[in-house]
Amino acid sequence: MTVKRKDLLDISSLSYDEIIYIFEAAKIFKKVFTETNKKFSFLSGHTVCMLFIEPSTRTRLSFEIAAKRLSGDVISVAPSTSSLVKGESLIDTVKTLEAMKTGFIVMRHPVSLAPDFLSRNCEAHVVNGGDGNHAHPTQALLDGFSVYERSGSLKGLRVAIVGDIKHSRVARSGIELFTKMGSDVVLCGPPTLLPDDFSQYGIEMTFDLDSILPKLDVVNMLRIQLERQKGSLFPSIREYNKYFSLTKDRLKKCRKDVIVMHPGPINRGIEIDDFVADCENAIIEEQVTNGIAVRMAVFSLLCGKTLEDINKEK
User: Fold this and answer.
1) Angle between helical axes of 284-302 and 58-69 (0-180°, round to 10)
2) Interval 252-303: pLDDT, tens
3) Which of 26, 39, 225, 248 could be 275's S-S partner, Cβ–Cβ 3.0 to 4.6 Å?
4) What is the 8-class DSSP label of residue 152?
5) Is 147 strand, coil or helix?
6) Pairing relation of β-strands 218-221 and 184-188?
7) For residue 253, with 0-12 CB atoms within 10 Å meaning exposed, 13-18 middle and 19 or more buried, which class applies?
8) Are 220 and 174 in contact, with CB atoms under 8 Å apart?
9) CA 154 to mean position of chain CA atoms
10) What is the pLDDT, as a whole number, of residue 201?
């Protein structure tokens, strides 16, 4: 499959076939980069800019490694050391980058839809590395791939996304991906973190974690995003932990083969305890590895490469 696609801004714009392409390409990339030091040439001669207006470690490093594994040249722009602090507009910053022949811009921004705005005003390929509360497409893709790799398909799986749904771009993108791929998604969290606007997705929502655990195939635990919250949305961390943390006792209520996920960074002892985070059901470290493979697949998709092209170079 060859795809003509300029940008990756969200999950909703991806077709089923494009997602399967990314999953299958990621399989190949993962096998190669975990077993050898071989690089692919797909980004040779291209400059990839990491434009992270919002702090990040895991996502930024994952994109950087992915680009370098594809032979791309990587530059990073930190807002604190750029002309943005002097009042330069985002568009002028990007135009400067394009004048330097930057072909790909990976953008993380605290304002929702900022990457969409950027994509309409530049010729470079734009990849959304997370924008406001709106979307985090590559996180959803790596989460989906991690389950796909284990199960062979996402169709018919019952997937719970648990925690701070309200402030989570991971939740929004995850809902779109898993439902598009045929999974049954249920959201769970405190009423104040599970707002009414999620009813638009037409999926189950509950405030009772214990009631859904026995029938889950996948449970994705989200971090409490205190930095995005305005005011207190639950009485205390202790109470949140009591009702919505995935603990050793709660894990016993799950199926023996349940897949436990977390997008990171983990707040141990809040949304998940040490035993669960480190148990054999948890694939949290594997998600990090898979993030590199999936982002390599995304770059190759934007380059118009086919699975045949990838197999020829492996």
Assistant:
1) 50
2) 999 999 999 999 888 898 899 999 999 999 999 999 999 999 999 999 999 9
3) 248
4) S
5) helix
6) unpaired
7) middle
8) yes
9) 16
10) 86
